Amino acid sequence: MSLRCTLATARRVLAQLRHDHRTLALLLVVPCVLISLLAWIYDGTGTFDQIGAPLLGIFPFVVMFLVTSVATLRERTSGTLERLLTMPIGKLDFLMGYALAFGLLAVVQAVVASALSLLVLGLDVVGPAWLIVVVALLDALLGMALGLLVSAFASTEFQAVQFLPAVVLPQFLLCGLLVPRDRMNDVLQAVSDVLPLSYAVDAMRIVSSSPTVQGEVWRDLAIVGGAIVLALALGAATLRRRTP
Amino acid sequence: MVNNSPGPAAVAAQDLRVHRGGRAVLDGLSFEVPRGLVMGLLGPSGCGKTTLMRAIVGVQVVSGGRVEVLGLPAGSAPLRSRVGYVTQAPSVYGDLTVTENLRYFAAILGAADADVRRVVDQVGLSSQADSVAGALSGGERARVSLAGALLGTPELLVLDEPTVGLDPVLRRDLWQLFGRLASQGVTLLISSHVMDEAERCQRLLLMRDGRALADDTPQALLERTQTHDVESAFLALVDERARTTTEEVPS
Ligand SMILES: Nc1ncnc2c1ncn2[C@@H]1O[C@H](COP(=O)(O)OP(=O)(O)OP(=O)(O)O)[C@@H](O)[C@H]1O
Ligand SMILES: [Mg+2]
Hints:
The complex is a heterodimer.
Chain A lengths: L2 H17 L1 H21 L5 H31 L2 H6 L5 H30 L8 H23 L5 H18 L11 H9 L1 H14 L5 H24 L6
Helix pairs in contact in A: 1-5, 2-3, 2-5, 3-5, 3-6, 3-7, 3-9, 5-6, 6-9, 6-10, 9-10
Chain B lengths: L10 E10 L2 E11 L4 E5 L6 H9 L6 E6 L2 E2 L9 E4 L11 H12 L4 H9 L15 H13 L5 E5 L7 H16 L3 E6 L10 E6 L2 E6 L1 H8 L4 H19 L3
Parallel strand pairs in B: 3-8, 3-9, 6-7, 7-8
Antiparallel strand pairs in B: 1-2, 1-4, 4-5, 9-10
Helix pairs in contact in B: 2-3, 3-4, 6-7
The structure holds adenosine-5'-triphosphate (ATP) and magnesium ion.
Magnesium ion binds next to helix 1 of chain B.
């Protein structure tokens, strides 16, 4: 591990984003537009209070998954990854650099979307607001780690984008947002139990509905954290210095 | 420094074999690159030049034989700051400026920020230093990529067709730069399929179909084949090889 390489990589990724105004705007504006739309759709029904907080966690997950899988694929196809791997940078430095840059972006995204939801759209959250941001950050890192992992299995940007419905949608359907997990049949519940997004949504739900921070939240977050580490480790294993 | 400085060769390959796509792309290649000179790697398209360079910088899966670089196994960690590699297709971030690209590579190499200005000057891109790389011409982008390999103090530069698509003036300037670097003790392995660039190299490795046709100085090559330019020498060697192989095969 080299802090210098990690920081340099994070700085470089942020510089790339800074040049790409449209992506930056989309990253910050789209979640806000979507969550406003939801608040409007469920206006006066109380449903928004139930799904608003979990969605604040799902948006960064989906967005970071997409951004990371395309960004790493671009590194692979443009030859910059091959170049970096001939240079004195560790694979972990490279991954951590991305995690740092996208994590920072995720915090901004989560703060903006949460502020809008809580202050303007009237989302009722009982727990502490900072915990919403923490959960959203972990969700973003989870999306990032999975995006990184799947980009190894995509050789074109078309394929990378196809992984979104393949990897993200099942987790979305089974995470307990549409149907509570305890009301699913045993098979679906078992599948839901091994999908990391389920725990992220669980955590969001607990934070939004109970005034004190409970042990369950930390357990959920620990599981999400474990999934991030696992996905990053697998992702690092797919970054091969030598290729055929 | 002088040529042929003591110590292990810059590159030493023994019976190197590489398979790609189920085919032998390098088929038992043995050669040495002495230190402190410009070695040209020449051969037709698809003969395995890029594959060989990838093996030397340690990003190619090798199926047999050995490659040592500066006395260490190719690709080993201590070599990563001592060997500069320029890929055939420019590998730079198209959405960053020239300076941002090079600052990043400099940070990875642990080179000083001031080094960025030096290499930008060396490749003649001072006036484009703040342009976004994606908006540069192909030749300019290739020079950004080259500049990245000049950062720090590389002892071996592996350059995959660094002068393709450049105008004669730039090509002359770059070859002068390569010569200067070699006289300072840097070893350069430069691939090309433009045979007229061969005359600027102190040694040549001619390749065909994953094998070495010749490994010699340009003068010796011309004398041996009794030709006047490297292209004719290459063709003479191909014919000679064809004759010897037919003689070997009993009819
Ligand atoms: N990624 C790959 N997968 C499978 N085979 C490959 C791959 N890259 C190259 N090859 C094969 O390896 C052989 C040598 O390729 P290489 O790129 O080393 O040639 P080259 O001498 O650099 O050619 P050029 O002068 O056109 O750059 C080619 O026949 C090519 O078909
Ligand atoms: Mg090539």
